[in-house]
Amino acid sequence: MLPEHIGLMDIDGCLSQYSSGRVLMLELKPGSAPISTGARLTFALFVRAGIDVWVVWERGKARVKLGVCNKDGKVVNIREMTRRRCAQRIAEWWQKGLK
Questions:
Q1: What b/e sequence results for 37-70 when a residue is b if at least 16 CB atoms lie within 10 Å of its CB, and e otherwise?
Q2: Which of 5, 50, 67, 91 is 20 to 30 A from 20, alpha carbon to alpha carbon?
Q3: Segments making up each domain of the chain, as ranges
């Protein structure tokens, strides 16, 4: 049993690239669901440790909103795009680590 006000969070997706040491953590959210304070604080720790954290809000079958967490745990540069474009952005992240 965890002490009061302490809870667990899950990681929805994680890509790790051994050769470059890069890690991308993906947080998937439905619609316009908010990010909890605890999650924001955790994301800030991840980013400060060198892990990239992206939040993806599902906007129907074909569209998403993608944002990047900064060192304060705030989601910035939020852009709406197709799911295909989101997948391309992830592939670009991967390719950048191989250069």
A1: eebbebbbebbeeebbbbbbbebeeeebbbbbbe
A2: 67
A3: 13-98
